[in-house]
Amino acid sequence: MTGRHQNRLARIAELVPPRARVLDLGCGNGALLALLRDQRQCTGYGIEIDDTHVLECVQRGVNVIQRNLEDGLSIFDDGSFDVVLQLDSLQNLRNTEAMLRETARVGRIGIVSFPNFAHWPHRLSVLRGRMPVSKSLPYQWYDTPNIRVTTFKDFDALARQNGLRVLESFGLDPQGDEVRRWPNLRASTAIFKFEKKA
Question: In the chain, how many domains are there?
Fold first, then answer.
């Protein structure tokens, strides 16, 4: 695991209250859930579709459900979790808005992260007439798993439009360091913590 990735996981873990019940949507290899279990005494589940990642979760002792996120979260009751994580999976979904509402339905707090398309190197690449390729967007336009790209301002507007209150937002630079000043321009990754408005 790279230092950048470790910094990112550690920073996201700090947003999760100790002993929280957590659902991680698109949990990958389960590294974050294992970190939350071991360092913050959290419990919960990951949802992952990829066979290899599901096996890695099991090997880490992480509870995982193999499921396509496009099928929604109907298997969970309202308020089943303290925190629902959706890290670098939002941009891969066809019905982003519905999944955002589902995240708020099953969890008291939601935390999302996504590649920030407004990061200055991405803007420069587009000005040069090319789609950006970077650490946060590592694919060519023709082989990317990303269905859509977004920015801080776009996600903030979507959250408000869906009755969510943004509790905190910040960015991470390509080295995994926190960016609070001008994150829409300076951050390669966006992170939002939100809750449903009362």
Answer: 1
